[in-house]
């Protein structure tokens, strides 16, 4: 497991906007027939806003469970939360889920860990249960970047392609879908996100590299950024 700690991913960014959360949850509901009896687990849930909103929307009878290595103070209270590394997570034999969500988290793990996790999770599903893995679209990414960030992102997406191959090898009948969200954001706000190292590719950069990158973005983009945030969704 990488030592990366991501704290500002969904900290007042488009990823925590009502619009994004609703679009994402509509995508889930469109692709999986979720009802109020569903037992849901979210691995790497962050602040748990997606899960909390889903719980309200579907009037879930049982609070969904979110797990994460970071316990945010402003975490959504509509979920049960466990602070744990999923790789050390164990379940009671009778604890099964109808939906397991892994959204933009699997890329932070080593290949061997991913294989072990997927096998363990499959055993934690009810017979008709599904695992949904979301990860950045490896092919047609539009995330605004500066030169070094683009290079790091490219490397990371190359690794993601390998992860997708591993998943397909274990589960050849997996289904692939796309979730696309239109982002409109002020450049100033996006620069704040960069400063906050919102994406894992920015975590290892030095302060100097970050400042240089911010200057590049200042020059490269107009005051309003418009792009598509594209995710691949793998259904197992
Ligand atoms: C990029 S964020 C995604 C958050 C949320 N799923 C979303 O899409 O808004 C990745 C999250 O995974 C968590 N995480 C990373 N590795 C983990 C692990 N081994 N076990 C549990 N959580 C982990 C991080 O702390 C972080 O909150």
Provide key terms for this protein.
single chain; 236 residues; alpha/beta; Rossmann fold; 6 helices; 7 strands; 23% strand; globular; binds S-adenosylmethionine
Notes on the structure:
With 236 residues, the protein is α/β, with parallel strands linked by helices. Helix content is 36%, strand content 23%. It has a 7-stranded mixed beta sheet. Strand 1 (40-43), helix 2 and strand 2 (65-68) form a beta-alpha-beta unit. Helix 1 (18-31) packs across helix 2 and helix 3 (111-123) crosses helix 4. 26% of the residues are buried. Bound molecules: S-adenosylmethionine.
Counting helices, strands and paired strands, the structural category is alpha/beta
For the biggest β-sheet, the strand order reads: 3-2-1-4-5-7-6
Largest sheet: 7 strands, mixed
Radius of gyration: 18 Å
So what's the CATH class? Alpha Beta
Q: In whole angstroms, how far apart are the ends?
A: 22 Å
- Count of all domains: 1
| CATH domain topology | Rossmann fold
Instruction: Tell me which CATH architecture applies here.
Output: 3-Layer(aba) Sandwich
List the ions, cofactors and other small molecules found in this model: S-adenosylmethionine
- Mean pLDDT comes to 93
Number of discrete helical segments: 6
CATH homologous group name: Vaccinia Virus protein VP39
Beta-strand percentage range: 15-25%
Structural shape? globular
Low-pLDDT runs of 5+ residues are none
The succession of helices and strands, N to C, reads HEHEEEHEHEHHE
- According to DSSP, the number of beta strands is 7
Helix content: 25-40%
């Amino acid at each position: 497991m990488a030592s990366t700690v991501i704290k500002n991913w969904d900290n007042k960014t488009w990823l925590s906007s009502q619009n994004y959360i609703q679009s994402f949850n509509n995508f889930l509901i469109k692709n999986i027939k979720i009802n109020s009896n569903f037992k849901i687990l979210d691995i790497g849930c962050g602040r748990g806003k997606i899960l909390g909103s889903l719980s309200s929307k579907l009037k879930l009878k049982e609070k969904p469970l979110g797990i994460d290595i970071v316990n945010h103070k402003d975490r959504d209270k509509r979920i049960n939360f466990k602070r744990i590394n999923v790789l050390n997570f164990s379940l009671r034999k009778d604890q099964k889920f109808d939906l397991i969500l892994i959204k933009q988290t699997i890329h932070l793990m080593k290949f061997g860990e991913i294989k072990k996790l997927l096998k363990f999770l499959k055993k934690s599903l009810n017979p008709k249960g599904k695992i949904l893995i979301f990860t950045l679209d490896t092919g047609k990414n539009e995330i605004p970047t500066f030169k070094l960030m683009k290079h790091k992102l490219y490397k990371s997406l190359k690794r993601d392609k390998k992860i997708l191959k591993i998943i397909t090898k274990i589960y050849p009948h997996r289904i692939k879908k796309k979730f696309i969200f239109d982002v409109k954001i002020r450049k100033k706000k996006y620069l704040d996100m960069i400063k906050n190292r919102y994406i894992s590719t920015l975590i290892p950069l030095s302060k100097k590299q970050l400042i240089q990158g911010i200057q590049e973005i200042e020059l490269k983009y107009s005051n309003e950024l418009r792009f598509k945030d594209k995710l691949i969704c793998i259904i197992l």
